Amino acid sequence: MTTGTSEPTFGRILALDLGKRRIGLALSDPLRITAQGIDTLTRVRVREDLETLARLAEERGVTEFLFGEPLHMSGDESRQSTYTHEFAERLGARTRMPVRFWDERWTSVEAGRVLRDSGISIEKRARAVDRLSAVILLESYLDYLRYQIEEVSE
């Protein structure tokens, strides 16, 4: 599902791992090759969160938002899906930028595994998992975009 007014093929993508207390964030480079985690946003109120994200998008030259699609392992929508779609629609309307959704079922699991394997403390892991989940989400989407480009050029 996509909302927004245009369909950019270049420009920065801001990936969001939306949670009730925090939003993990990752940003692509303008050519959409790499993903880099940026500071996790601690939630305040929806209106303030939307303003913070809109300001961040403007400052960083974002042209598209990518939200993790919170699905059950069966592929069915979760309770969080409705909330995520409502929040995403409000952000898209506020910024007039496209919003996309990408399956996030394994991102938190993978982020937890990577952080556990890194040997950092449990406390630091808890703070880093949202950001790393957003990075993994964005990397997966960027890989998909590269695959689409390769398919077209063959």
Structure description:
It is a single chain. The chain has one domain: YqgF/RNase H-like domain (Nucleotidyltransferase, domain 5), CATH 3.30.420. Helix content is 49%, strand content 24%. The protein has helices at 46-60, 79-95, 107-118, 122-153; strands spanning 2-3, 12-18, 22-28, 35-42, 62-69, 99-103. It has a six-stranded mixed sheet, with helices on both faces. Helix 2 links the parallel strand 5 (62-69) and strand 6. The two termini are 27 Å apart.
Summarize this entry quickly.
It is built from 4 helices and 6 strands.
Structural class: alpha/beta
Low-confidence stretches: 1-6
Secondary structure: number of strands: 6
Can you tell me the CATH class?
Answer: Alpha Beta
Output the radius of gyration. 15 Å
Span of the ends, CA to CA: 27 Å
Which percent bin holds the helix content? 40-55%
CATH architecture descriptor text: 2-Layer Sandwich
**What's the helix count?**
4
Strand order of the largest sheet: 1-6-5-2-3-4
Mean of residue pLDDT?
A: 83
Task: Give the overall shape, derived from the CA principal axes.
Answer: globular
